[in-house]
C-alpha cells in the first residue's frame, strides 16, 4: 500500500534510507509495535487473572451470578448488558474502519461523519463501563465474611438469593462510626456496614427457610449450600464482617481477588478506551480543520484507527475471560 | 493514491465487491459469533460441560471463537491482510509466541499451587 505521507528525497536510494521493505510508513509501523507491546501488557494481566483463578479454581465466583443487571430493567439478565457493550465497541470499530476507508478516497465529509459516530460509540462504551462498575461496587444481596476471609451468602430453600437487609433484625445497639472529631484525631475508620454479624445471625435464626451458601463449588458446578444446622453454626462461629458490594478490600460475590482483577483489568481497558476517545476527538478536529486535506493523506486517521481497533480487540478477550469462561 | 485491498475472506469462499462491503460483511460475521457466545453463555448446554484437556468443552469453544474474532478484527479492520508478509509475521508471531509462553507458565504454576492447597499442602511425599 502506498502510504507515504511526506517525501524525504531519499526515494529509491537503498543506502540513503529510501528503501521500505515493509511498505509501511514509519508512523504506522511504530503504532503496530506499540500495539504488540500493549498486547503483551494486557496478556500479562489476563494471564495473572488466570493464575489466580487456577489457584482458587474450586471457589472462584461464577460471573453469571455477578453481572446480572441491565439499566432501567429489574430482574436477572446475565450477560445481556455486557453483550450490548461488546456490540457497541465492535460497531464503533466498524465506523472507524469506514472512516479510514473514506480517508483513502479523500472524502472529507464522510471521514468527519464516521469519526463522529466512532467517538459517540466510545463514549457509550465508557459510560456503560462506569455503570457496570457502579453496580458492582454497590452490590445487591450482601454477604458475611468469615474470619478466614471466605464469603457466606444467604439463599432460601429453592436456592434463590436472599438479601442481608431482608432478614437482619435491627438490634439498635450498634457502634457509632469513629470520626476524627469524636476520637483519636489521627485515626480514620471507614464507613461501618449497615448491619452487624449478630443482627444477621438473629435474622437467620428467625427465618427457618434461609440457608448459608459458601464459596466452594461442588461437583455439579454450583456453589455449596450448607444444611440448616451447619448454616447456623458457620455463621455463629466464623462470621466476622457484613459485606455489601465490592471494593479492593472486600467483595460480597466471593474472593476479593476477583474484584481486584475486575477493577484493574477493566479499569486499564476503560482507560485505553478513554484515551482512544480523546485521541479520536483530536483527530476529528484536525479533519474538520482540513489538516489532512492539505497534507494530502489521511494516514493519521488510519493510525488512530489501528489503536482504536486494538482497544476493541482487547475487549473481545476481556469479555471472554471475565464474563464467559 | 493506490490502495489495494484484498477483498476475499474465508480463504476465498466469500468475495466482496468493495472494501466497504467487506467491512459490513465482517461486522455481520463478528455479530453472529458474539451472539453464539452469548447464547451458549446464558444456556450453558449440559452436553458441553464434559472435560477436555483440563477444561470444559464449552470454555474451549469460547476461547476458539474469541481467537476467530480477534483474527478478523486484526486482518480486516486493522488491514493486516493488506500488509507485507514480513510486517505481519513480525507483529503476529512475536505476540503469539510470547503470549502462549506467558499463559503456559502462569497457568501451570496456578494449577500446581491449587493442587498443593487441595492435597493438604503436600504435593509429593518423598
Automatic annotation (TrEMBL), chain A:
InterPro entries: Cyt_c/ubiquinol_Oxase_su3 (IPR024791), Cyt_c_oxidase-like_su3 (IPR000298), Cyt_c_oxidase_su3-like_sf (IPR035973), Cyt_c_oxidase_su3_a-hlx (IPR013833). It is found in: Cell membrane. It holds the Pfam family COX3. Keywords: Cell membrane, Membrane, Transmembrane, Transmembrane helix. This is Cytochrome c oxidase subunit 3. Coiled coil: none annotated. Belongs to the cytochrome c oxidase subunit 3 family. It comes from Psychroserpens algicola. The keyword Cell membrane applies. The chain crosses the membrane at residues 31-51, 79-99, 111-131, 261-292, 304-324. It is a multi-pass membrane protein. Residues 1-325 form the Heme-copper oxidase subunit III family profile domain. Gene3D superfamilies: Cytochrome c oxidase, subunit III, four-helix bundle. Its main location: membrane.
Automatic annotation (TrEMBL), chain B:
It comes from the Bacteria. Pfam families: COX4_pro. The keyword Ribonucleoprotein does not apply. The chain crosses the membrane at residues 23-43, 58-78, 90-107. Keywords: Cell membrane, Membrane, Transmembrane, Transmembrane helix. It is found in: Cell membrane. The keyword Calcium does not apply. This is Cytochrome C oxidase subunit IV family protein.
Amino acid at each position: 500500500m502506498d502510504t507515504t505521507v511526506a517525501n524525504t528525497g531519499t526515494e529509491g536510494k537503498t543506502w540513503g534510507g529510501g528503501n521500505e521493505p515493509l511498505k509501511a510508513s514509519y508512523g504506522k509501523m511504530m503504532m503496530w509495535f506499540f500495539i504488540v507491546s500493549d498486547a503483551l501488557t494486557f496478556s500479562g494481566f489476563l494471564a495473572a487473572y488466570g493464575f489466580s483463578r487456577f489457584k482458587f479454581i474450586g471457589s472462584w465466583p461464577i460471573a453469571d451470578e455477578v453481572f446480572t443487571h441491565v439499566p432501567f430493567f429489574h430482574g436477572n439478565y446475565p450477560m445481556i448488558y455486557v453483550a450490548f457493550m461488546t456490540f457497541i465497541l465492535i460497531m464503533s470499530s466498524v465506523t472507524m474502519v469506514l472512516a479510514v476507508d473514506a480517508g483513502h478516497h479523500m472524502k472529507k465529509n464522510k471521514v468527519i461523519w464516521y469519526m463522529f459516530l466512532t467517538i459517540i460509540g466510545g463514549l457509550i462504551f465508557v459510560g456503560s463501563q462506569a455503570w457496570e462498575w457502579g453496580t458492582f461496587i454497590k452490590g445487591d444481596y450482601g454477604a458475611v465474611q468469615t474470619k478466614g476471609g471466605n464469603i457466606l451468602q444467604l439463599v432460601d430453600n429453592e436456592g434463590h438469593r436472599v438479601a442481608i437487609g431482608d432478614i437482619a433484625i435491627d438490634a439498635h445497639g450498634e457502634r457509632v462510626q469513629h470520626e476524627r472529631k469524636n476520637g483519636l484525631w489521627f485515626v480514620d475508620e471507614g464507613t461501618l456496614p449497615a448491619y452487624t454479624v449478630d443482627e444477621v445471625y438473629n435474622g437467620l435464626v428467625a427465618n427457618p427457610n434461609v440457608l448459608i451458601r459458601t464459596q466452594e463449588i461442588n461437583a455439579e458446578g454450583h456453589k455449596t449450600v450448607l444444611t440448616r444446622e451447619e448454616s447456623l453454626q458457620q455463621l455463629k462461629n466464623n462470621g466476622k464482617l457484613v459485606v455489601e458490594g465490592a471494593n479492593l478490600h472486600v467483595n460480597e460475590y466471593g474472593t476479593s481477588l476477583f474484584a481486584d482483577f475486575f477493577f484493574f483489568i477493566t479499569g486499564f481497558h476503560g482507560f485505553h478506551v478513554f484515551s482512544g476517545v480523546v485521541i479520536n476527538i483530536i483527530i476529528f478536529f484536525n479533519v474538520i480543520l482540513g489538516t489532512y486535506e492539505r497534507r494530502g493523506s489521511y494516514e493519521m486517521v488510519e493510525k488512530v484507527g489501528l489503536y482504536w481497533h486494538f482497544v476493541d480487540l482487547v475487549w473481545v478477550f476481556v469479555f471472554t475471560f471475565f464474563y464467559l469462561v | 493514491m493506490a490502495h489495494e485491498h484484498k477483498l476475499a475472506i474465508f480463504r476465498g469462499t466469500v468475495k466482496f465487491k468493495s472494501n466497504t462491503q467487506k467491512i459490513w460483511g465482517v461486522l455481520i460475521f463478528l455479530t453472529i459469533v458474539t451472539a453464539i457466545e452469548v447464547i451458549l453463555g446464558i444456556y450453558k448446554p449440559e452436553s458441553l460441560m464434559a472435560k477436555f484437556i483440563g477444561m470444559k468443552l464449552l470454555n474451549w469453544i469460547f476461547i476458539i471463537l474469541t481467537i476467530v474474532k480477534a483474527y478478523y478484527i486484526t486482518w480486516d479492520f486493522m488491514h493486516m491482510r493488506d500488509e507485507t508478509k514480513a510486517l505481519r509475521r513480525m507483529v503476529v508471531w512475536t505476540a503469539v509466541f510470547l503470549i502462549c509462553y506467558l499463559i503456559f507458565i502462569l497457568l501451570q504454576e496456578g494449577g500446581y499451587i491449587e493442587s498443593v492447597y487441595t492435597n493438604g499442602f503436600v504435593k509429593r511425599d518423598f
